[in-house]
Each structure stands twice: as C-alpha cells, then as structure tokens.
Design goal:
Length: 253
Amino acid sequence: MEWRDEGIILGTRRHGESSVILEAMTRSHGRHMGRGRGGRPGRLHPALQRGNRVVLIWRTRPDEHLGIFQAEALEMNAARLMDSAVAMHGLQLLAAHLRLLPERDPHCRLYETLCVMISHLEDAEIVAELMAHFELLVLEELGFGLDLSRCAATGQRHDLVYVSPKSGKAVSREAGEPWRDRMLALPPFLLRGSGLRANAAAIDDAFRLTGFFLARNVYEPRGMEEPVARAGFLAALRKQHTFARGPTGETAA
C-alpha cells in the first residue's frame, strides 16, 4: 500500500540507531504515524522538525502496520518558530489537541486551520484568537460542537453574550441576565462573521469557555488531565502581552 500527501510534522521519537517514529497531521489521511529512515541525524533530519510542512510518501507491506515515511520539505518553519515561547508551547498544544482524534481519521478543516496557525504561531495576538477558534473546531470534530449562532431561549441572532454551560448554546443578554452568574461569557470575536479582534479579557474568556467544554466532554470522560502544554501556552501568551504593553499598559518602545 502507498499514498502521497501533504502534512505538518507534529513530532518524532527515536527508533533504533538511525530511524525515528514520525507523527504528522496530513491533509487527506489524518494524523498518521510512520517510521522515518535516516531521521536521526541523517539526511531527513532537517525536514522532520516539528512545525515543518512536508510532502509525505507512506509505504507499507501487508504484514506491517506502521509503514515507512519519505519526506520532502515544503516549508521549513521550525527554525523560525523555535525562538518564540508562544510558538513552541503552541505547537505542543496543537499536537495534544490533534491526538484527541482517532489516528488516520481525515479532518480536512483542522488541517487547513493548522496550516494557517503555523504561519502565525509567533504572533501572540493573532495566534491567541486562532487557538481559541481551533479549540472550538476540535470540539466540533469530536461531536461536541457549541451552537453560537442564535439564542437558545429566544432564537435571536443579536446581542449574544453568554453560553449555557449545560447545553453549549449561546444565550442573549436579556434572556441570560437572571442566570448570569451561572453562564459562561461569550467573547464577540468568536461569533462567526463578526470580524472583531480580541482584547486580553476576551482571550481569557474564550479559553475559559473552550477549557470548560474540553474538560467536561473530552478530558474527564477519558480520565485525562488538561495537557500541560495548554497551561504553558496561556502563560507564554500572558507574559508576551505584559511585555508588549509594559507595566503601566503603555506599548513598549
């Protein structure tokens, strides 16, 4: 069996004297594992760094499940990203989210979003918004998507400011006011087609929202803890934001 596809390197681990086990998210074949010959530290080593976009050829025999990868670099992103704490924690978090999905299950929308994120990983302001949207998409692909299109109580599509923790549906300001202390905040930038940017408070609200549903619907039923990479990513975001704004909130020179 053989296929050719485009992919993003998620990670590698040592296998024998000169090979690695390669993990990649591919466009048409989902998250896929394979053995890479010459990947440590041989000819393929530079191409197999986390975050690189590559063309992959995967071959296997009927009696072999893992298969063998050949890789050719399309975008060497790793060197650009390694100096950014936000980017490195972001890469680890993206990989952790993708590992929630069954191996070899195609998720084309996630792959396309992943490619966009790789292009902006070192930009703390942009990647914070993108990661929140990515987590919403992961929930959707796992069958736990939130309905943020209309109010669960009235059906209206405007002034949506809450999400019900019970149903995962948006709630308008007026309908949710009596239960506001029990509701999760819905940052406006998460609404489809809003075109709005997020401030620091909106980012915190967004990750509180996605974190709640990831914990309740994904981590806890599987007996998992939230990945350490998520806390590391959020801490790196906050540190970067503090540096950029300065201790008094003024933009650093």
